[in-house]
Every structure is written in C-alpha cells, then in structure tokens.
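I am going through a labmate's work and have reached the protein record below. What it holds is a sequence and that sequence's fold in token form. Please read both lines and tell me whether the tokens look consistent with the sequence. Do not assume that whoever made the record got everything right. Thanks in advance; the entry in question is below.
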Amino acid sequence: MSVSEITESHETVQVDALNTGLNARINRLLRDLEAKNKRNVLRGAYYDGKRAARQITSVLPPAYNNLGLVLGWTAKAVDALNRRCHLDTFTWPDGDLGSLGFAEVWDGNMLGAEVDQGLESSLVHCTGYTITTAGGPGEPEVLWQFRDATQAIGDWNARTRRLDNLLVVTSYADSRLTGFVLYEPNRTITCRREQGKWLVVADQEHVWGVPAEPLPYKPRLRRPFGSSRITRPMMGLQDAAVRELARLEGHMDVYSFPEMWMLGADPSIFKAPDGTVRSTWQVMLGRIKGIPDDEDLTNPRADVKQFLASSPEPHLKDINALSKLFAREASLPDSSVAISDFANPTSAESYDASQYELVAEAEGATDDWSPFLRRSMIRALAMQNGINGMEDVPAEWWSINTSWRDVRYESRAAKADGGMKQLQALPWLAETEVGPELVGLTPDQARRAEGDRRRKAGSATLQAIAAGGSGSAAEEAKTIAAKGEALGSLIRAGVIPADAARIVGLDVGFTGAVPVTLRPTEREAANLEGE
C-alpha cells in the first residue's frame, strides 16, 4: 500500500469516541509519518528502479531526458546484504520448542519467507515493524505481521527499550486516510472513516503491552530507528552514473559515426530521387555514397575528408569509476557492480577477502535485529500457550534465541571439514543436536537422519530378541525406551499387542486402541460396516 497518497495533505483526525490526549497523539504520529514519508518513498523508488534521471545536461537534446534510463545499484546493495541475513529458525537450549507450539507459529505465519521481507523493508526504509496479535477466524491462532516505515510509526522509549505506541495505516480511498490501528499499552484501537465521520470499530484490552517491535538497521543513540541502507552517497553516485549513461547514448547516436567534410558538393546529393530531403538516419547509415561531378565548376569533383569516429571509452571509464565508488560505499566487491573483465577465475582467497566488509555488515545487522525478533517469538509463544502477559512468561523461556544462516558463503566441504575438527576436539558433541549442525546438515536433514537412526535401532533390537530369546532380550533391551520401541514395531507389523509385549518382556496393559495403519481383512471390514 502506498502511503504517499494518504499523507500528501494531512487533515486533522477527530475520533469522538476517544479522549483529547489520544486524538492529539494520533495526529502527531500522522504528522511524523508524513514528514518522513517523502524520503521513504524516494528510497523505495530507488530500490524499485523507478527513479529516472531528471535534467541531465543542457548540452544533450531534450529527447534524452525522456529515455527513462535507470540503474539497479541501490537494489543490488540492499539485496546483496539481505540475502546473507536469513533467519533459519529459533532455538531453545533449555527445552523443546515443539512442545510450545513453535511449528504452528512458524509455519502458520510463513515466517521462513516473511521475515526476509520484513528485513528488506528495514534495509530500504531504515526500520520495519513486527506485530504479534491474536488471530481471527480462518487465521493462525497467533498472527505475526510485518509493516514498513511507510505504513507505521511509533514512539521509542529509551528507558524501557520498547515502543510506547505504534500507529499503523490500514486503508485509504481517494487520497484520504480511511483506516488505522493504534497500539497503546494493553490496548488496541481500530478506527475507520465512514461517511466522513471517524468511528471506533474495535477497542480491545489485553495484557501484552504494545505487542510490536521495531526492526532497525544500524541504530544509534540519537537515531534508535536506525538509518537506511540506501544512503545519500549511494543515491548521488547512482544518479551520476545514470547521467553518464545518457551522455553515452548521445555519443553513440552522434559521435560514433565517422565525421565527413565535403568540399564542393551540391546539396542535391542529400535528396531522394523524388526531390525530398533524405532523413538523417538514411544519410548516416548509407554504406555507399556517390557524389556526381559538376563540370560547370572550377573544381568539378567534390573533395571528401573523413575524421575518425570518437571512442566511447571515456564514458565507460567514468561509469566504471562511479561503480567502484558505489561498491566502496556499499561494502560490495567491485565485481558486483563494476564493468570488470577477469582474464582468469578469481582465487578462493581473493574472493573471500573481497567479501569481508559485506560479511561484517551482515553480522552487525543480524545482531541488531535478533533481540527484537527473539522478543516477538517469546510473546507469540506466550499467546499460543495461554500465558497471562509477558510478566508470567517462565524464566527458562528467555533462553529462546534466533538461529541465522551463516552469513558467509562457505562450501559444504569446508564447513564439514571445520565441523569434524570441532567434533574431534569435543567428541561428545556428536551425540547432541549441535553435531549435525556443525558438519553442515540442514535442520531437515538432521531430523531425517535422527529418525532413520531410531528406526534402525528398533530393528536391531527386534533382531536381537528373535536371535537370543527372552534372556537375550533382557540383556539387549536395557532400557524401557528400547523395549517400547520394539513393542511398537511389532504391533505396527500386525502382531497381537499382548503377544508383542510378551515377546519383548514388558508387563503392560493396553487401552484397546491400535495403530491406524493396520488394516483388517475384507471380511472383518464388512462385518464392521454391517454388510
């Protein structure tokens, strides 16, 4: 949603159902949003490739101002950093996230993809916002949403390190604001304009304070909401390069053709057989030019002199120099934006060295975002589990943390080699969830490997039972867990539960329920259905 149309002419909002203080706060936040909107929309235009050069130079014809030339350097700067900052998951050293309903929150809100979108908005506009609320009908139980700085604005409390409030623009019509949500401590107010009058659609009280967090890029003491990745030097360098591109276009149109001087020629040579003057492109692109002799002149044959065409090399060198200046500002390697011809492949060491600054930027960005994403996830899980406010969140939950993908592009072989060295130094890590992670397995691969290991262990236990009888079973199945796994395998294979318990040596009772994967015979099924 574009907010530029909403805030171009801010009018005072008066919600009769709200007190004077809240109305004043709403209007102040809307004015602040309007004041920042111009720069936010400008940076969005740079990122989207909609920022065309204006007046280029008085030397070029006006037609070149309408070429619509654009460059994607600023988008490259944002995307190159954003692609290195991917949130893989959350971890909980003190417990099992699955038992808290983590999968419902993560998958229900598509956080694996939408977190990246929220971080992209943070890079473009300097900050984004993450909001966690209770879901409605047809929505996840806990709704996790992201808003960018063109849609939302709030007040930061430096003492509590939290937002005091957040205003989110939700709708507009005919360039007028028609809806917004105001998040106050323990209160959420939804307002909508109907027939020219502002109404409170919903006024909900809760126990979650302001259920929102900022996602600032490069925050500092005097700018807690951070700064945009698209800096003024980047915008200036990209504009200069676009102007140089326009000059290159003009050069190719005018100065790339050989320049000729004709002495003693009649203007009729530039006319078509019907007497009309040939168009410029026909004259310039003509491969064979014939000039007839004029015997009535002192010098009957025209003298033609040629000057070599001008090279576009100065323009290309200027663009290349500007691109390298841009790369320095964006902490990118020259090869990302510069016009570079590599005679030989870049060595691994040289490539790594060229990425150090970008890697440092990515590590710093993830460090800045982590506390806010972590707090949002703890709040979402608390809502999921019916906890009565952040004050009642169990202390051990505060060890829940973010797990980011490695910001370095490391080969699988190098990652596995480094992990093996760590496992050799601390062999016990191989028996933990950290072991597969160290050697480069993805969380999904680690879960699949662990599942296969357990199934094979159960099969081995069954084989040992079959080979050694009940005495051997007591020796091999040293734990109840192993016996239980063998029992489950037998039952799933169709063995009567009581017989399976006798085989593995367990004296247990059964509820009568059986695995749904077991299928009765056709005759038994017919009897069950009354046929």
